[in-house]
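FW: tagging you since you asked about this chain on Friday. Here's the raw sequence from the shared folder, copied in full. Didn't touch anything.
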Amino acid sequence: MKKANQGKMVFKAMKTMGRNMCSGLSLVFLVITLVAFSLSPLPAAGSGYPNRTITLVVPLSPGGEMDTFARAFAEPFEKLLKQPVVVINKTGGGMTVAGNYIASSKPDGYTLCMLPIQASLTEVYSSFRETPYSSKDLTPISQLITTAISVTVKGDSPWNSLEDLVEYAKKNPGTKIGTQGVNSLGSLFMMLMAKANGTTFKTVPFRGGSKIVAALLGGHVPIGTPAYSRVRRLNQAKKLKTLALMVEERVDFDPDMPTVVEYGYKLPYVSFVGLFGPKGMPPEVVKVIEESIRKISEDPSFRKKMISMGIQVDYKDSSSFQKKLMQDKKRLQALFKEKGLVK
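HL: got it, structure written out here
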């Protein structure tokens, strides 16, 4: 009996020892696994991008040039990225509602926004309005298009060139011009043109290009500076007449239309629409998006489609676009200060 009890005790001790050895081996295995995992390279921050739906924000209502372009652009963008691209409109605040939305979004490349200069370099316009973000809160990804701002008059106007307009303004200082505000490209250029010729214009601000067009057609202002896409068909119908465009080179969709540069004038900047993301986007994600935009911009069928819509494709990569933004910022800050528009 005593021997039997001793045998049971030995068996029990061996069993306990076995369990302890197994637990020890398991612990060792776990430690080795964790160490190996910690030493192995982690996947890149943007690897696998994109793998779900991308939201493309437009800061203006449906129907305008930017919205039209966004929806046309979304189709090939979606095909290249192999993920759905959904266009949404977030209006208000002079396009800064959309700008603040993107600045506050997660910087993972799944929320992008199209913005013009006023909503991307907000600090330059801080004397005119307050915004909760600045250009430092955005990642410039690419310039997409150039917006051709026009100098347009009524179709039966006696003016057929900028020279005709300047001669009239010299004899009639204070002639009204319809613009989108004193800090808009149209207003700034006309002010510079007037100064160069020793005359003045009186700015009449309107909320949007469509309002300027209506004022021109109604005879409320003799001169207007809407985007050319707003007046192109009215020009063809002889209801309006564009004298020149505020761009540095002639546009593809109307190569016969002269630029203000050809008349010897300098532009404070050229109006554009760019693609932005939130601050802190992974460089590899920016590269994927940037490269997709380049391919779309170079595609002949896409460019042909844009020409038919009166939209000027003008691609710049992220680096070139950032340089342009900084140049525009310096020019505008100096101009606003010179003109007494800011302190």
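FW: Confidence is low (pLDDT under 50) at residues 1-46.
HL: agreed, and The chain has two domains: 54-147+271-338, 150-263.
FW: great, closing this out.
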